[in-house]
């Protein structure tokens, strides 16, 4: 299995903020297949372009057991909103549902 930690970072090329998810694989057993599967998923995901889907920028393999995924840094998340607010007005909940459905339909 892999564990990952997400950090906020600055893109050296653009100076903009981005998120970096650093994966550390607990063992080298089957790690090649896991990295191959993740790389394929990232390649597909990086081609998506929708305002309600996090943009993947690129990934790098740091070692046999480490990989970094660079992606768009989001200002907030649905989880964060719900944890802070606990309850949403009907129009807010409807707007969020519409955005989720639009991303799923894409």
Bulk shape: elongated
Total number of helical segments?
A: 3
Helix content class: 25-40%
Major β-sheet, in short?
Answer: 4 strands, antiparallel
Q: Any low-confidence stretches, pLDDT <50, length ≥5? A: none
Name the helix and strand elements from N-terminus to C-terminus, one letter apiece: EEHEEHH
Strand content: 25-35%
Total number of strands: 4
Mean pLDDT: 87
Q: Distance between the terminal alpha carbons, to the nearest Å?
A: 30 Å
User: What structural category characterises the helix and strand content?
Assistant: alpha+beta
Within the largest sheet, what's the order of strands?
1-2-4-3
> For the CA atoms, what is the radius of gyration?
16 Å
List the helices and strands and how they pair.
Elements: E1 2-10, E2 17-25, H1 31-45, E3 56-63, E4 66-71, H2 78-85, H3 90-105
Antiparallel strand pairs: 1-2, 2-4, 3-4
